[in-house]
Amino acid sequence: MSALKTIEGQFIVSGKTIAIVATRFNGFIVESLLAGAVDALTRHGVPHSDLRKIYVPGAFELPYVVKKIATSGKVDAIIALGAVIRGSTPHFDYVAGECAKGVAAVSVQQELPIAFGVLTTDTIEQAVERVVYAEAFVLLYTEIVYRCCIPARYVR
Length: 156
Prior knowledge:
By secondary structure, the protein is of the alpha/beta class. Helices cover 50% and strands 19% of the residues. The chain has five helices and four strands. The chain has a four-stranded parallel sheet with strand order 2-1-3-4, sandwiched between helices. Helix 2 runs parallel beside helix 3. The longest helix is centred in the C-terminal third of the chain and has 21 residues, at 134-154. It is globular.
């Protein structure tokens, strides 16, 4: 019996350009996620010169800007960061749902690794609690992106 050929991305990064798209709305939460993303990426070999930081007003705008970046051909992967906190109206449901669907659609349509790092919480307190674990979340997002970069070229 022959051994299966294993194709797996490495979490050692070189020569890859990464865009981090972050929302300004709920910036007190998102800035922690952004700082964690930059830290995780640089610790795994990505120089600052290979990172692109792009801000959008809020989570609803993420899919549009992510698509523009994805179709530019100038990046190898994207990390989308934001925070949508439930209020007293159904606005949360529309914003969070459309943001998630839109970013996922771009990843599939453009065949580009996109990590979805948008927190969705019921309260500000929950968002703050999640930021305590931001490094673990962001490390996971960045690892997903990088592990996807290499295998993608083998399955096209």
